[in-house]
Design goal:
Blueprint lengths: L2 E6 L5 H11 L6 E8 L2 E8 L2 H11 L5 E7 L14 E3 L2 E9 L2 H10 L9 H16 L2 H11 L2 E9 L6 E6 L4 E4 L4 E4 L11 E4 L4 E5 L4 E5 L10 E2 L15 H7 L1 H9 L3 E2 L2 E2 L17 E6 L1 H18 L2 E6 H4 L10 E7 L5 H13 L3 E6 L5 H5 L2 E4 L12 H20 L5 H22 L2 H9 L6 E6 L4 H15 L2 E6 L16 E6 L5 H13 L3 E6 L11 E5 L8 H20 L17
Parallel strand pairs: 17-18, 17-19, 19-20, 20-21, 22-23, 22-24, 24-25, 25-26
Antiparallel strand pairs: 1-4, 1-10, 2-3, 2-4, 5-6, 6-7, 7-8, 8-12, 9-10, 9-11, 11-14, 12-13, 15-16
Helix pairs in contact: 1-2, 3-4, 4-5, 7-12, 7-13, 8-12, 8-15, 13-17, 14-17, 15-17
This protein binds 6-O-phosphono-alpha-D-glucopyranose (G6P).
Length: 609
């Protein structure tokens, strides 16, 4: 989703801004733009498509200046076009914006009556003109900025420059993340720390309704009423190298192959012989969950699928009723919250707008505690939750989530064990068995990755296919959903995940020899039931690809191909069987020639509703 980079320095900033934009590409966008100020002149360049095009344009046209702002836009109001791309300009003011101004239409009408003409269809230009009109009245940019922000409804991360005051960058946050980077004799702003890692690792996270004025030497943070706010400086443990592809062709491929390491990192310091170290969950003590009676999990996309798997573990290991819901639905439902309830959010980025809104609502609904399972330290969800489990997957750049998902699953399993133990539902021997299995996970993950070549040739069979079904049962049903999501988001093959038992209630009507059916069939108690479902599909002429472990009666024949996978402990099956499905999606996308890391229309971090 949209990205912001800004800088005020004692050197030309265009390269810093462009590098920052490249590092935000993974978030998804359709156009890009940059503006610098130099000797009272404004250098504005905007291009449709990739940041590389903007880089070429900057090379040709030049973009000098010690202060500047840049943006990648993911269209919300108005089609992707250079006119709608940011930065937007209104007379002496130049601005970039992430988020949505909800009351833009009425504000726009008002501004038109005051004589403003609009060059774009964006809500951003409306806000900018509003600031401009208030500046004309007050003569003070900061007070015009504040007053305008009080008038708008919606969400924003903003960076604003004034041609008449080229020493200062004004920034503000409400609903869209914004981070200030501290340099020496230079300061920066961005919507994501990754954008600024080449220039600094010291950051200030702006909170809701905070504004800041940045000069080369000073950073002053205030609230909307102008009261000064003291902020902590946070040192990031990421470095610029965390976002290179290394020997891999795509970030997604690299991230799939990083899973043994990322799972190892998730476990680091968290296993204490046969116990889970309490530090696994930042902030809890040994009694926190003793009285727990209900769990509500809320998330979006792949993280929601992790939550669906988590429910099986929570109910089995903690005996606590667990519900899972998509955040965009939860936030508008009048949920009934029983006493002793725990609210869990799951999010790779920690900035997903609907998940964050759900957490804020949950806090008013009377949940006893909130926990966030998150990959990004310092993110909004982390800062606003009572407790956090960091997944420690490392920066995930590919839009399609892979290592973040498997580390979310492992974190959920650890949490289920902690709660189960505190509630006295997990016997010592059972815990020992699970921990023993967990210790083997990184090595087993390597074994599963060894199926890559097989899956690569299997992917050729999906070439030219338009639709695909994924079937699973029990805890593997959410894995079928995730397999389908991966395939559709990066290869653009329409794919649906189904609980195999539900097949005869509708989807079986779709089956013919043009429809590949992927069956997720690890060796577990539901295997026989699953085989019956497979027979129903086979009888309708489907081409079946069965990802299986252990012995079973399913045989290779002209209609069905078996992909044999290593044996693994049952508790780890959801994590490990995800890997071949990620690889299948990846290789299908490569064959289909899609933009694997930045699939069309998708964004990594969805910071608008
Ligand atoms: C977007 C991404 C998905 C991700 C979802 C939730 O749709 O493309 O990969 O699963 O957002 O994001 P979160 O950061 O909350 O996990």
């Amino acid at each position: 989703m949209c990205g912001i980079v800004g800088a005020v320095a004692q050197r030309n900033v265009s390269q810093i801004l462009l590098e920052g934009l490249s590092r935000l590409e993974y978030r998804g966008y359709d156009s890009a733009g940059i503006c610098t100020l130099d000797n009272g002149e404004c250098h504005l360049i905007k291009t449709l498509g990739k940041v590389n095009k903007l880089k070429e344009a900057v090379k040709e046209e030049g973009c000098p200046g010690f202060i500047g702002i840049a943006h990648t836009r993911w269209a919300t109001h108005g089609v992707p076009s250079t006119a709608n791309a940011h930065p937007h300009v209104c007379d002496n003011l130049i601005m970039v914006h992430n988020g949505i101004i909800e009351n833009f239409a009425s504000l726009k009408e008002d501004l038109i009556t005051k004589g403003y003409n609009f060059k774009s269809q964006t809500d951003t230009e409306v806000l900018l003109c509003l600031i401009h009109s208030l500046l004309k009245t007050s003569g003070n940019l900061m007070s015009a900025f504040r007053t305008a922000l009080k008038e708008v409804k919606g969400s924003f991360g903003l960076a604003l420059m004034d041609k008449n005051d080229p020493e200062r960058l004004l920034v503000a946050r409400c609903g869209s993340p914004l981070i200030i980077g501290l340099g020496i004799g230079e300061n920066f702003v961005a919507s994501d720390t990754l954008a600024l890692l080449p220039v600094t690792r010291r950051f200030i996270y702006l909170e809701e309704n905070e504004l800041a004025v940045l000069t080369t030497d000073t950073i002053e943070v205030t609230d909307l009423d102008g009261h000064k706010v003291e902020k902590n400086i946070v040192e990031s443990d990421l470095d610029a190298e965390s976002i290179s592809k290394g020997k891999y062709r795509h970030f997604m491929q690299k991230e799939i192959f990083e899973q043994p390491l990322s799972l190892q990192n998730t476990l680091l310091g968290r296993l204490d012989n046969d116990e889970i170290a309490l530090e696994t969950v930042v902030g809890i003590n040994s009694d926190t969950f003793k009285k727990l009676d209900n769990i509500q999990i809320v998330a979006c996309g792949t993280s929601y699928h992790a939550g669906l798997v988590g429910r099986y573990w929570f109910e089995e290991l903690t005996h606590v009723t667990t519900n899972v819901e998509i955040a965009s639905e939860y936030r508008y439902r009048k949920a009934v919250v029983k006493p002793n309830s725990l609210f869990i959010t799951i999010s790779q980025s920690g900035e997903t707008a609907d998940t964050l809104a759900s957490l804020r609502i949950a806090k008013e609904q009377g949940y006893e505690h909130s926990i966030c399972i998150c990959n990004v330290n310092g993110s909004s969800l982390v800062r606003e939750s009572d407790f956090t489990i960091f997944t420690k997957a490392g920066a995930e750049i590919g839009v399609a989530s892979t290592k973040a998902f498997t580390t979310q699953l492992l974190s959920l399993l650890l949490l289920a064990l902690i709660i189960g133990k505190q509630k006295g539902c997990v016997a010592q021997a059972q815990q020992q068995n699970i921990i023993e299995a967990i210790r083997k996970l990184p090595a087993l993950c390597e074994e599963f990755l060894a199926c890559d070549k097989n899956i690569q040739s299997l992917a050729e069979k999906f070439s030219g296919k338009r639709h695909c079904l994924f079937l699973g049962r029990g805890i593997m049903y959410p894995i079928a959903l995730e397999g389908a999501l991966k395939l559709k988001e990066i290869s653009y093959i329409h794919a649906e995940g189904y609980a195999a038992g539900e097949l005869k209630h509708g989807p079986i009507a779709l089956i013919d020899k043009e429809m590949p059916v992927v069956v997720v069939a690890p060796d577990n108690a539901l295997m026989d039931k699953l085989i019956s479902n497979v027979e129903e599909v086979r009888a309708r002429g489907a081409l079946i690809y069965i990802f299986k472990s252990g012995e079973s009666d399913i045989k290779n024949d002209s209609q069905s191909k078996i992909i044999n996978l290593p044996d693994c402990p049952e508790v780890l099956q959801p994590i490990l069987f995800t890997i071949p499905l990620q690889l299948l999606a990846y290789h299908c996308a490569v064959i289909n020639g899609t933009d694997v890391d930045q699939p069309r229309n998708l964004a990594k971090s969805v910071t608008v509703e």
